[in-house]
Amino acid sequence: MTVLDETDTGLPQRRELVTEIPGPRSLAIHERRLRAVATGVSSTLPAYIETASGSILRDVDGNSLIDLGSGIAVTSVGHTAPRVVEAVRDQVGHLIHSCFMVTPYEPYVAVAEALNELTPGDFDKTTALFNSGAEAVENAVKIARHHTRRSAVVVFDHAYHGRTNLTMALTAKNMPYKHGFGPFAPEIYRASLSYPYRDPHGLSGRDAAVRSLAEVESQVGAANVACVLIEPIQGEGGFIVPAPGFLAAIAEWCAHHGAVFIADEIQTGFCRTGAWFACEHEGVVPDLITTAKGIAGGMPLAAVTGRAEIMNSVHEGGLGGTYGGNPVAAAAALGSIATMRELDLADRARHLGEIILGRFDELAGELAGIGDVRGRGAMCALELVVPGTTDPDPVATKRVAALCHQQGVVVLTCGTYGNVVRLLPPLVIGDDLLDEGLGVLEGALREVLGSR
Ligand SMILES: *Cc1c(COP(=O)(O)O)cnc(C)c1O
């Protein structure tokens, strides 16, 4: 099944290579970039993209690449999705900015209504809009602290919550996110995570939660915890799916101790895992939920949504920002959400996940060095290890990704140990194009892992 074919989008949904990747035009721009752009900002694959539609990225040399990363889980509705483009074009001719804190506009309200309805929880909710995921996380923490009048924030091993000062402190991994950027914000405490593949005791979700919460109670004290912040499935940390029951036990503990349970669904949200939000798979209802990435089809937008009594505990004027919920980004979100509903992209994500994980499982049975296959919906990963051990193999991981890139398939890596290949395809990708992309990845895995 092809959800969007080339009649719906601007580019044929085909991989086509006409130069090496990156090609000469990309290399020329790259030269300029090296002189002009701060080197701390890097690119996984420096093929400079000129046009994109559906699941195809076309670079300045005319190469058409298959995108299995969606700009890090952002273009879930596909690149330049028709409803998003239409909504942005229409909005941009009417109002680009007035600042919601000065003179408001309707699309902001419409996005808030949609989020209040779509997020889990059968209670009154309100929403505040921001520009980036990190900003949403910062604000969720602000709100939780204000509401509880407590200061401690509990996060987990392998967590990723952003790159601003507070969110760096919430993030687990030093290199590249934190190294040399301290001092970090105080009152942040890190608890153990349920990481089934690497849990030496093989704990169930409930037992892993008991371990984590014992750490919190002894090192922080339940009465000091403003909030517990967790990604239902970790993104940058390695697509780690906690053992079933872990999230629910953490949420129950929060409810019991008056701490705010915040789900960071910035990467997992908006149909990515086969539900609107990943918490739903576990029947967990967060007090607050942070969203961004897939929310607006590629436009920068983020949100905090949650229980009205918590959200509205903040004094008037306590939340905001010049651009938060910008009209064009808000219009894009409405176009993106409409596309997700119309094409039932949660269902599509489940279908893609079956194909991808099925293929990964077969490969894991065949190739030494695939330690773990995991994921949910269209958020799928392979963890690569030195054969016969669980020692991470970041070198092989890099080589696999590089081979895919050379052949025009954009895959991403992640993980605390840099040894996870992750796929986040646009949810509109056709089965044939996905199959082709997976074929290239399979070839790369055979070449790198099969040779040892
Ligand atoms: C990407 C991400 C963030 C940060 O979002 P930005 O828009 O890059 O600031 C926070 N949390 C999670 C889980 C993410 O995946």
Q: In terms of structural class, how would the helical and strand content be classed?
A: alpha/beta
> What proportion strand?
15-25%
Residue-averaged pLDDT:
97
Give me the side-by-side strand order of the main sheet.
4-10-9-8-7-5-6
- Percent helix: 25-40%
CATH superfamily placement of the largest domain? Type I PLP-dependent aspartate aminotransferase-like (Major domain)
Bound molecules: pyridoxal-5'-phosphate
Explain what the structure shows.
This protein is α/β, with parallel strands linked by helices and 452 residues long. The chain has helices spanning 24-36, 70-73, 82-92, 106-118, 133-148, 165-170, 205-219, 246-257, 308-311, 327-342, 345-366, 394-406, 431-449, and strands at 49-53, 56-59, 64-67, 125-130, 152-156, 188-191, 225-230, 260-264, 288-291, 302-307, 370-376, 379-384, 409-410, 412-414, 420-423. The protein has 2 domains: 6-75 and 345-449, Aspartate Aminotransferase, domain 1; 85-343, Type I PLP-dependent aspartate aminotransferase-like (Major domain) (Aspartate Aminotransferase, domain 2, 3-Layer(aba) Sandwich). It has a 7-stranded mixed beta sheet with strand order 4-10-9-8-7-5-6, sandwiched between helices. A 4-stranded mixed beta sheet has the order 1-2-3-13. The chain has a 4-stranded antiparallel beta sheet with strand order 11-12-15-14, covered by helices on one side. Helix 4 packs parallel to helix 10 (327-342) and helix 7 packs parallel to helix 8 (246-257). The longest helix is centred in the last third of the chain and has 22 residues, at 345-366. The radius of gyration is 21 Å and the shape is globular. Bound molecules: pyridoxal-5'-phosphate.
